[in-house]
Amino acid sequence: MADVKDQNYPYSLPELGYDHDALEPVIDTQTMQLHHGKHHQAYVDNLNKALESHTDLHSKTLGELLGSLDSVPDAIRGAVRNNGGGHVNHSMFWGIMSLEKGNEPTGDVADVITRDYGSLDDFKTQFNDAGAKQFGSGWVFVTVEGDALKIASAPNQDTPLHKGVEPLFGNDVWEHAYYLKYNNRRPDYLKAWWEVLDWEAVAERYAKLKG
Ligand code: MN3
Questions:
Q1: Is 93 part of a structural domain of the chain?
Q2: pTM to 2 decimals?
Q3: Which residue in 204, 202, 167, 174 sits closest to 5, CA to CA?
Q4: Is 9 in contact with 58 (CB distance < 8 Å)?
Q5: Which residue segment(s) compose the domain that 73 sits in?
Q6: Does 115 share its domain with 191?
C-alpha cells in the first residue's frame, strides 16, 4: 500500500501491524485501543467528511493537500490541516514503533547522531526536552536535512509536510497518548517511549529520506 502521504480520497484507517498489548508496559493496551481505534479513526472520518463534497480535491494526495493548504478552500482548510495532519502523523507513529523493545540505532543513523549530538543519550535529551516544552497538544519530530537530523516540536496535528518535508520519526505528546498510564507526567512518557521506538524502521526511513 502506498504511503499515506501519497494516498488520496477516500482515506482509511491503516492496520496497526501488531496487537494492542504489544507495546506494554511502555504504552498500555487501553491507550492503544483508544488512540488507534477512536482518535485516529476520528481523524480519518473527519478528513473524509471535510473533503466529501470537494470532488476537485479528490485526486490530490494528502501530502499535496497538507503542503499547499492555501489552495484548500477556507471552509475546510482547518479541518484538512487538523484531520489530515492527524492521519499522516498517526500513520507514521504506528509504523515506527515495535514490540522488538529496546533496540538501538545502527549504521548511518547511529553515526550521524554521534557526530551531531555527541551521544544517543544527548540526542534523546534534546528530543525529550522539545516534547516536554511543547505547550498543550502537539508532536516532537525529527527531520532529515541533508544527512543531518533536526529536532523540532509542532502544535496540534501540524506536520513538517506543510513545508514539504516528511518526518523521519516523531512522538505524540497529546495527553491522549499517555494520560491513562502516565497522568500528567509527560516527561516520564517521553523517557519511556524510546523503549518502543523501532530503530530498524527509522533506518529504513532515513535511507529513503536523506538527500
Ligand atoms: Mn494522537
A1: yes
A2: 0.96
A3: 167
A4: yes
A5: 29-98
A6: yes
